[in-house]
Specification:
This protein is an all-alpha fold. It has a single domain, classed as Na+/H+ antiporter like fold (Up-down Bundle). The chain has 13 helices and no strands. Helix 1 packs antiparallel against helix 12 and helix 3 packs antiparallel against helix 4. The longest helix has 29 residues. About 50% of the residues are buried.
Length: about 290
């Protein structure tokens, strides 16, 4: 009941709430800031899944947990990534644009990465054994389609969308917490039995993702605020989508455990980045030295 109905509906509402704050103009940064967008997409959609594959090999994770961690890495930025980027003093417009593009592209990118993980890590025999079509349609139906519908409402009736968005964002944040906490409770015993297996690789992946994004942004010559946006957008993943793919589409409760653990860990590291950035800004009148202009 929960994974078959409530979880998809909850995720669909989360994505709908996100879409109410997005406009077609949010995609304009693809053309006006192509380097920043390209580096952000590279960091989120290529580097992060590659890091996840490296981490599962490094820790020699059990099959289901290994696949689950790669599933999480394939998911785009979460519902709170734009807000936290704003609170940290990062480039909010870049964060919003990255969320918009990766969320729409997720209908194709998530199934591709997950199916590669099932073959490489999960030991599946080949493409014919993998639920490519099911995952593509499932992710599109509960993640991409609600986002697009909400964006259409925002484009045609902006005043109505603005009124809806204020309440919807709060409800979506509460739903996200409910999904993670509910999944945590349902898998409590599994997580307690395998905490040593799952927590270290989840934390390592999160930290490596943020450091990798920072390194990529610095090499690309991005400004401090854009670097901060890339770090948070790469480190903050859509845990609810990861739980949905694992529990509903793949019917594997064990595979959703890494998404639960990562969702908890990523908020701790994101909070540390935000606090460090804000404290530095108050003391020096700028952003954290790690994100400052050269």
């Amino acid at each position: 009941m929960i994974t078959d109905l409530l979880l998809p509906l909850g995720l669909a509402f989360i994505m709908f709430a996100m879409g109410l704050a997005l406009k077609p103009a949010d995609f304009a940064l693809v053309f006006t800031r192509p380097k920043a967008m390209a580096l952000g997409l590279l960091s989120q959609m290529v580097v992060l899944p590659v890091l996840a594959l490296a981490v599962v090999e490094m820790f020699d994770l059990p099959r289901d947990f290994a696949v689950g961690l790669v599933i999480l890495a394939a998911c785009p930025g979460g519902i709170t990534s734009n807000l936290l980027t704003h609170l940290a003093g990062g480039a909010t417009a870049l964060a919003v644009s990255l969320t918009a593009v990766t969320s729409v592209a997720g209908a194709l990118s998530v199934p591709v990465v997950v199916n590669l993980a099932l073959m490489h890590v999960g030991g599946q025999a080949g493409p014919m054994d993998l639920p490519v079509a099911k995952m593509t349609m499932g992710v599109f139906a509960v993640a991409t389609l609600p986002l697009i519908v909400a964006m259409v409402i925002n484009a045609r009736w902006p005043i109505v969308a603005a009124r809806m968005e204020k309440l919807a964002r709060h409800l979506a944040t509460a739903l996200f917490a409910f999904i993670v906490v509910g999944a945590f409770a349902s898998q409590w015993r599994t997580m307690m039995d395998h905490a040593v297996d799952v927590l270290p690789p989840a934390v390592v992946l999160n930290v490596l993702a943020m450091l990798g994004a920072l390194a990529l942004a610095r090499l690309g010559g991005l400004g401090g605020k854009e670097r901060l946006a890339l770090v948070l957008e790469t480190g903050l993943q859509n845990g609810a989508l990861g739980i949905f793919v694992a529990a509903t589409l793949l019917q594997s409760p064990a595979m959703m455990v890494p998404s639960i653990v990562y969702a908890l860990a990523m908020n701790v590291t994101a909070l540390a980045v935000i606090v460090a950035s804000r404290l530095s800004a108050m003391k020096k009148g700028g952003v954290n030295p790690a994100f400052s202009q050269d």
